[in-house]
Amino acid sequence: MTRDQLKKKVGNRIIELRTKKGWNQSDLARECGQDRQAIKKLENGKVNPTIYSLYEIAKALKVDIYQLFGF
């Protein structure tokens, strides 16, 4: 798997988990202390997130961090 494929996979998984909660990007951004544009870029696979950023997103979504990878 390439870096870009992994970023897209993680982004798609975040979208899936976020929409299951009925949240939009702004809701997730507010819950994890990021801005909506950062969430948008992450979900679109445009950025390489830090482990801390992924930790905060997982915490907001109430999932273990490994669930963001969808393996």
Automatic annotation (TrEMBL):
Q: Which residues form a coiled coil?
A: none
Domain HTH cro/C1-type: from-to ranges: 14-68
What Pfam families does the record point to? HTH_3
Question: Could you tell me the keywords of this UniProt record?
Answer: DNA-binding
Database matches in InterPro entries: Cro/C1-type_HTH
Q: Does the keyword DNA-binding apply?
A: yes
Protein name from the UniProt record: Helix-turn-helix domain-containing protein
Q: What is the lineage of its organism?
A: Bacteria, Pseudomonadati, Bacteroidota, Flavobacteriia, Flavobacteriales
